[in-house]
Amino acid sequence: MPELPEVETVRRGLQPFLDGQKLKTVVLRRSGLRIPFPKDLSERTRGKTVNYLTRRAKYLLMHIEGGDVVIIHLGMSGHMTILKKNIPKPGKHDHVDFCICTGVIVRFNDPRRFGLMTITTEKELDFHKFFRANGPDPLANNFNHSILMEALVGRKTSIKVALLDQRIIAGLGNIYVSESLFRSGISPLRLASSLKRVEVEKLAKCICEVLIEALEAGGSSLNDHVKPDGKLGYFQNNHRVYGQEDKICIVCLEVKIKKIKQSGRSTFYCPICQS
Question: Which of 58, 107, 183, 240 is catalytic?
Fold first, then answer.
């Protein structure tokens, strides 16, 4: 599933083609994806200008003239592609076209159909069920170790499971939690509330560093992630533990990266570097 860097990469790729542009129409080729499309989605966006694109956690937000906001989640396999010339006919999994008055089409493709698209208003956005319980965005200016420390107080789950909880930090997933814990030298098995302030300070710093590096690389293209221009991200080439099970740790050079399950999710770590 695309995580914060992948979604932000998509936002940045779409921004030059959508910000300030008028939507001619939005073509829906099915009744919905993970959830039904709002029946008035096309009507509420037709002929309206896209003021700007933002991101919250793992969601893209398309802010529309008049105060509406289109909420988009890429799911497990969704991607959005910019089509400018020699536009091909829609394929089996091309479910939505955002047709811009410039002639550009932004096409939403989702083979597994775990993505979603809905619409709300600017006034209701903060209270929407997708966002009202969200924790801080780790790339926001106000994110720091004190905020993370406070969120971990009393948490009786492992630090790995805690960081995947969107109520603690919004936007992190399996890849970047695993990589951040490795860089900070913290075992994913540690009880979240047991971390000392100095450890949380280092963890918060590593989370930001990993995310920024991933953004610079265009995200991690493992299964389905591609940028809007069709190119792949390459941060997967820099993964130190995620997907590296049974390979010798590149830091200690003594043991192999271990893969375990925590709350049904795969965890990757070095038993020595993260002891």
Answer: 58
